[in-house]
Amino acid sequence: MLTCLVIGSGVAGLSTALSLQKAGHSATVFEAHNGPSDGVGAFLTLAVNGFDALDTLGLKEQAAQLGFSTPLMSMYLGSTGRHLIDFDFGGTLPDGTTARTMTRSELYTLLREEALRRGIRIEHGRRLIRVEELPDGVTAVFDDGTSARGDLLVGADGLRSAVRPLIDPASPAPRTIPLLNTGGIIPANTAALALKDVDLGVSPGRMKMVFGKRCFYCYMPSPDGRIWWFANPLQRSSADPALLGQEELKSWLTGLVAGDRTPMAALIRATEDIIKPYSTFDFPSVPRWHRGRMVLVGDAAHAASPSSGQGASMAIEDAVTLGRALRGATSDDKEASLAARFAAYEAERRPRAETVVAWGRRNSEPKVRNQFTRVLQDLAMRAIFRGLARKAADNFDWLYGHHIDWDAVPEFADR
Questions:
Q1: In b/e form, how buried is each residue of 370-396, taking b as 16+ CB within 10 angstroms?
Q2: Would you call 140 helix, strand, or coil by DSSP?
Q3: pLDDT tens for residues 91-127?
Q4: How many whole angstroms separate alpha carbon 78 and alpha carbon 264?
Q5: How many CB atoms lie within 10 A of CB 98?
Q6: What's this model's pTM, rounded to 2 decimal places?
Q7: Angle subtended at Cα 163 by Cα 285 and Cα 345, rounded to the nearest 5 degrees
Q8: Count of CB atoms within 10 A of residue 58's CB?
Q9: Strands of the 152-155 sheet, one edge to the other
Q10: 206-211 and 72-77: which strand pairing?
Q11: How confident is the model at residue 323 (pLDDT cuts 50, 70, 90)?
């Protein structure tokens, strides 16, 4: 059995701890923040490949109760209200599971509570500052003066990972995508009153995605009457929209969508708490995912644009693949043996992860529009999306059909 130190208690860290425990190891999760992050964050869509990976951890059925089913999306032009194309968002697993939209907090809470139920310790207020490498293990040193000893350390600490530069001091900085992310959820009672005369033009379970004149956005009703939406304004070169108050933020966003033939402006006005806009980044490639007894998972290794729709799903896939690669490892294993297992994990994950990052960036590009190019893009958009729909029908099984066989035995370089 290995003693594993997992840095970061987000989706990647908690999934990794659960996977390592399934592989027969002891895992402790260390989180820089002082307490759990229940209720923190926006919402996400967990794709069917993410559910398939959760099934390995015994959590697919519980996760399938979160949020609501969103297996479909439709694309529109905001300037004319014209329908472009419909997409099937990832298909359906054999048991009927589809992609589901949920708050980040719902997924986090499920993973955290299950980790605690299974005896995994989560320690908060433990911000990593350095790692001391030993012949037979590692010591993580935290900013509160405490430390922890383990056989290996997993960096599951996201885009701004503290572990990544410890593995490779020359690791690249995140790459900027010039889009902001914001959004909100309108409660059912508010929607029933404030939007009773508004025609959304979309039924529950279908995402309506709009290429607006000045901003890309999406909205969708849930079966319980709530309305969920997000928007991707262009990154501003002057004032930071994250510093705007709620009323100023509403005014700015409604100005961006006011010229479109959609109800988006009304949705913004009806939202009580709009998420403060935050920037978009990705990693084209992180040269080193592991060194010695340290290894990366999730966004720390391969952050993709939210436009990929794969952030949480890829993190869970990483967790399952790493756990599988470490089955049978013991505390007596030499560093070279662990390195071979890390290399097997990376060899399996890197090509897929970097393809998803590139896919997310391509999905972001049509959203980066200006008034000089928008008219020409609008003219070409329908033909472009018809072509994409044909590709999706034929070629997207690589994205959504991915399955990790836990019982398969990876080949290690030292065998």
A1: eeeebeeebeebeeebeebbeebeeeb
A2: strand
A3: 889 999 999 999 999 999 999 999 999 999 999 999 9
A4: 10
A5: 21
A6: 0.94
A7: 55
A8: 12
A9: 121-123, 26-30, 3-7, 152-155, 294-296, 290-291
A10: parallel
A11: very high
